[in-house]
Design brief:
789 residues; alpha/beta; 8-stranded mixed β-barrel; 5-stranded antiparallel sheet; 16% strand; rod-shaped; binds ligand C2E; binds magnesium ion
């Protein structure tokens, strides 16, 4: 029974019997019950014995009387018959014997000695009278016998009868009294014992119930205890009980799992020994706080020392149980949140860093810039922002693939970092754009750093064994204006970077207010270019390609022009780089493709020849990479019912400089349409003779830069000769570009060049002009006209 239940019970007893405990009452009741029961049984036995004795004596007396009367009736019969027969004598003897037996029984029945002797005397008197009668009869003295029978014997029998009646009725009364007393006594005992029994039974039942409850209570207490131990033993959280001063009084087994320290070795030490030294003062504060506020949760996060020397992050909850005698300390629950912390750190890192290079991203850069600017306000020197953009990264990325591009960016990041001071911040904004925060941009520091970066990025970068060349255009913006705002500084550096790019790339430029206007102008230009096709401002010019044998026009190259409403006719050099950068080249190129096909069909019908006139169409790197280019070319050719072999696609070397799977696949897809493929501006980019073998190329076009110097320098002659010889062995068609003089033409003819293109034959002209040109039958006539002009 629980102590509470027991005390409640005692309270009740106390209320009924002041000063007597419940156990004592029970003892009194039990004793009473036993005494009553034993006394009752004894009394009952005695009384019933008395009653039985009386009954037995009574029966014996009645039998004695009965036997006596039976003996008299024998004598009476014998008197009547006038003699005693032998049978009568025997019966008399038998009755006498029985009577004597009954007298013995009566003697031992427990009846009073007076009664026994009275009855015996009366019987003996009667028997004596009967003997006298029988003797007289035996002597045939009938008169005497009759006389004694009617006097003495009758008198004796009356006495015997009356005496026996008196004694037996007294005995019956005695027996009844004894029975009555026994019954009443039993009733009284039952009346006394029954309530006691009921009380005792109830008490027994309640005891039994209480002991069951107690057993259950103990069991659940043991279970709870076992559960608690199991919880504490298997908990992943550390549970410590500390004294007011941080001394560990108890440490749960989780210390082993979480910190690699057995709990036993922690007990008796100070908790501060496992707390990071930077967190100790905070730990002391929260201990003080907890000690001052009982039963209030005090929480904190801290680093705990692991056995292996590493630090684990823990969430700590302190509960002051100093006032609880069972605990008598501050309970510290420590949950290992290292993984969560690391995850949070990862997320934070992810939010502020570029995933490829691990460098700060725009958000973090702006944050650092903002801090840098606030420091500037305190110090003398300015901070500088550099905006670095790689000049031809797109080409590398598109041709070598993204993985190679990524590797190149990592190398670029490393090289830029090598030019900076530890204080400076290098960030990647995305793509090939990097920014640098120069913490100290005083004097010529920004220029020196920029020059260093330009220099280190000019060195070739080897990706997959391939030397890739890149350069960087850098814009610099310096703080020092009253309205220094991080975003504005970054924007100004971007503007300066664009200035560096447009003025030749591979250089740096420092921001000046005048550049803002230029940047706005460029934005406007880009917008106009996007709308150029829709506004019918794009026109296609054509330049003839002639046979070097007889100068006959065998084909034409389509060359795009932009008829700008204000700036007039713009050559491709003025807008194609921007179109390429912004993606507008896709719609421009699609327009030229369709228009050139349509025009070829018109000319082929107008000037039937054998072989038919051909059309060369330029594809920029971005057009070539576009997923729909193959379909676009096929559709345009079908639309105008052209023979695919009459279309020649000119691809610049920058596209094909590496033998990547994609390039080969794309070239083969185009080739499957049936078109011809030409490498434009051969030997100006990442020239490699090796790819000529693996690519399905039909023509190479020797760049004007070589042709223009033909005859001037022996070396150039040798290069062109080598190219032509190689191409010849591979059965490739060779076209010389930019032929302006007869000398150049003659040299190319001598070297075995198949076709030529240049001002010597015709400048690019509108479709109408070229129609007129082809009309004139002989090329030589046209030459004469040119010379005359
Ligand atoms: P390209 O494909 O190499 O075209 C030849 C360029 O050389 C043309 O310049 C042409 O006018 C010029 N040219 C031809 N003969 C002579 C000559 O004797 N002397 C000199 N000084 N120049 C000569 P253009 O039209 O300015 O085109 C420049 C480049 O723009 C083209 O070089 C081509 O790469 C690109 N381009 C032109 N039209 C298109 C086009 O429709 N799509 C694409 N993607 N690119 C085009
Ligand atoms: Mg071309
Ligand atoms: Mg060319």
């Amino acid at each position: 029974m629980s102590p509470i239940a027991q005390s409640a019970k005692d309270d009740k007893v106390e209320a009924v019997m002041p000063g007597v405990s419940s156990d004592r009452v029970e003892r009194i009741l039990t004793t009473t019950l036993i005494v009553a029961a034993v006394g009752g049984v004894l009394a009952f036995n005695i009384l019933s014995h008395i009653a039985d004795t009386n009954r037995r004596a009574q029966i014996s007396i009645e039998r004695i009387v009965g036997l006596t009367f039976k003996m008299r009736s024998i004598t009476s019969d014998s008197l009547a018959k006038g003699g005693l027969t032998g049978g009568a004598r025997k019966r008399l003897a038998a009755f006498e014997e029985q009577a004597q037996t009954q007298i013995d029984v009566l003697d031992h029945s427990g009846a009073s000695a007076d009664d026994v002797s009275t009855i015996t005397r009366c019987y003996e008197a009667s028997r004596a009278a009967i003997v006298t009668v029988t003797d007289a009869l035996a002597k045939r003295n009938i008169a005497k016998a009759s006389y004694i029978d009617s006097t003495k014997l009758a008198q004796c029998l009356v006495t015997l009868n009356s005496t026996s009646l008196a004694i037996t009725s007294s005995m019956e009364r005695n027996a009844d009294v004894a029975y009555g007393i026994a019954l009443i006594g039993s009733g009284i005992i039952i009346a006394i014992t029954m309530p006691i029994l009921v009380i005792l039974f109830r008490r027994f039942e309640s005891r039994r119930h209480e002991s069951l409850l107690l057993a259950n209570e103990r069991r659940s207490l043991r279970q709870n205890e076992a559960r608690f131990h199991s919880l504490v033993a298997n908990a992943t959280d550390i549970i410590l009980i500390l004294d007011r001063f941080g001394l560990i009084q108890y440490a749960s087994p989780a210390t082993d799992k979480v910190l690699g320290i057995p709990s036993a070795s922690l007990t008796g030490t100070r908790v501060y020994t496992i707390i990071h030294h930077d967190d100790v003062s905070h730990a002391r504060n929260i201990m003080d706080q907890s000690a001052g506020s009982p039963s209030v949760n005090v929480t904190a996060e801290m680093r705990l020392l692991h056995q292996n020397g590493s630090w684990r992050h823990a969430e700590i909850v302190l509960i002051n149980q100093l006032g609880q005698p069972e605990v008598g300390g501050i309970i510290a629950t420590m949950r290992d949140i290292t993984e969560r912390k690391e995850f949070e750190e990862q997320l934070t890192h992810h939010a502020f860093h570029d995933s490829l290079t691990g460098l700060p991203n725009r958000a973090l850069f702006l944050d650092r810039l903002s801090l840098g600017l606030s420091r500037t306000a305190r110090h003398e020197h300015a901070v500088g922002v550099m905006f670095i953009d790689l000049d031809n990264f797109k080409v590398v990325n598109d041709s070598l693939g993204h993985q190679a591009g990524d590797r190149m960016l990592l190398e670029v990041a490393d090289r830029i970092k090598s030019c900076l001071r530890p204080d400076d911040t290098l960030a990647r904004l995305g793509g090939d754009e990097f920014t640098v925060l120069l913490e100290n941009a005083s004097g010529t520091i920004p220029q020196m750093v920029a020059e260093r970066i330009v220099r280190v990025l000019e060195e070739p970068i080897y990706v997959e064994g391939q030397a890739c060349f890149t350069s960087a255009s850098i814009g610099i913006a310096l703080s020092g204006n009253s309205d220094d705002i991080p975003q504005f500084l970054l924007r100004d550096a971007d503007t300066a970077m664009y200035e560096a790019k447009t003025s030749g790339k591979g250089r740096y430029s420092i921001f000046h207010r005048s550049m803002s206007a230029k940047a706005a102008e460029r934005l406007e230009f880009e917008g106009e270019l996007r709308k150029a096709v829709d506004r019918n401002e794009v026109v296609v010019f054509y330049q003839p390609i002639v046979s070097m044998l007889d100068e006959r026009i065998v084909g034409l190259e389509s060359l795009m022009r932009w008829k700008h409403p204000i700036r007039g006719m713009l050559p491709p050099g003025k807008f194609i780089p921007i179109a390429e950068e912004t993606g507008t080249i896709i719609s421009l190129g699609q327009f030229v493709l369709v228009e050139a096909c349509r025009q070829l069909r018109e000319w082929q019908e107008m000037f039937p020849s054998d072989p038919r006139l051909k059309m060369s169409i330029n594809l920029s790197p971005r057009q070539f990479q576009h997923p729909e280019i193959v379909d676009d070319v096929r559709t345009a050719i079908r639309r105008f019912g052209l023979n695919p072999a009459d279309i020649k696609l000119e691809i610049t070397e920058s596209v094909t400089f590496a033998d990547t799977e994609n390039t080969v696949r794309k070239l083969e897809q185009l080739k499957q349409i049936g078109v011809q493929l030409a490498i434009d501006d051969f030997c100006t980019g990442y020239s490699s003779m090796s790819y000529l073998k693996s690519f399905p190329i039909d023509t190479i076009k020797i760049d004007r830069s070589f042709v223009s110097r033909l005859g001037d320098e022996v070396e150039d002659d040798a290069i062109v000769k080598a190219i032509i010889t190689l191409a010849k062995t591979m059965r490739l068609d060779i076209t010389g570009e930019g032929i302006e003089t007869h000398e150049q033409m003659r040299r190319l003819q001598a070297l075995g060049c198949d076709h030529g293109q240049g001002y010597l034959f015709s400048k690019p002209g509108s479709a109408t002009e070229i129609t007129e040109l082809i009309k004139s039958r002989s090329m030589s006539d046209h030459l004469v006209e040119l010379r005359a002009a």
